[in-house]
């Protein structure tokens, strides 16, 4: 239950499209949603290059105490001919706190500048601000002890109390391990990783899950790492069906800068419009035993990225 709820807004499995001739040759017929491929393919038969890159990647990741990024996410579901756009924020703080917020972007068809005979979905911009018009979609807060999942469409909050193993697992799902806290031993245990291409700006890595828990979230991931600090600038996670995908574009990366503690606090929305359910699926007695005190925050604390996100009480 926790895996399904926590990853709903973060994975298809959390998670579009990186392009590369070598990767396309391995998966004929699949075309990425966009982007420019690294020009230099890397021989898949040389795993030592991937090992060196993984060691460097883990070394850089170990230096991170906090990370705050902006995300633009495109969800595609080919079987239903659907494409949804979201803008959001991700903030992570060691050891086990995270904040993920997404707003659904209003889109419209526009001529494709790369193909005059086709159209593509683009964000509708506010004439005054020149920014995408969007509405709150969902917010996920991992406080360290609990996960708070805010669903704006149904005005419901699901709160899950986590034991130690669940807290660790919550932060390991979706795109977070690729963005934050990449470790060599965990990478070997959980993934098959191959360096498929590179150019002067970035590396292209293809990742496949080994563990059943991960396979239930995604069938493979494509990751672009910028060369200087080895931080992902794009992550695409393909769903277990191998068709649907979530394409994350990562921007405005801020590493090791203070993050407002408000981002990692779960709060009950004011008023009667929202309902709060703790530990859905648990027996009533278990719910009563594990019910935590009502969370309260500083009245002056900063609100989450969504303008309509629940405010502290």
Helix-strand layout with pairing:
Blueprint: H1 2-8, H2 21-26, E1 40-41, H3 47-62, E2 66-77, E3 82-93, E4 97-105, E5 107-112, E6 115-123, E7 134-142, E8 146-151, E9 156-161, H4 164-172, H5 176-179, H6 184-190, E10 191-198, E11 202-209, H7 212-215, E12 220-226, E13 232-238, E14 245-255, E15 275-278, H8 284-290
Parallel strand pairs: 9-15
Antiparallel strand pairs: 1-10, 2-3, 2-14, 3-4, 4-7, 5-6, 7-8, 8-9, 10-11, 11-12, 12-13, 13-14
Report on this model:
- This protein is an alpha+beta fold.
- The protein has helices at 2-8, 21-26, 47-62, 164-172, 176-179, 184-190, 212-215, 284-290, and strands at 40-41, 66-77, 82-93, 97-105, 107-112, 115-123, 134-142, 146-151, 156-161, 191-198, 202-209, 220-226, 232-238, 245-255, 275-278.
- It starts with a helix and ends in a 23-residue tail after the last helix.
- It is globular and about 60 Å long.
- The strands form two sheets. Strands 1-10-11-12-13-14-2-3-4-7-8-9-15 form a 13-stranded mixed β-sheet.
- It has a single domain, classed as Lipoprotein localisation LolA/LolB/LppX (outer membrane lipoprotein receptor (LolB), chain A), CATH 2.50.20.
- 19% of the residues lie in helices and 37% in strands.
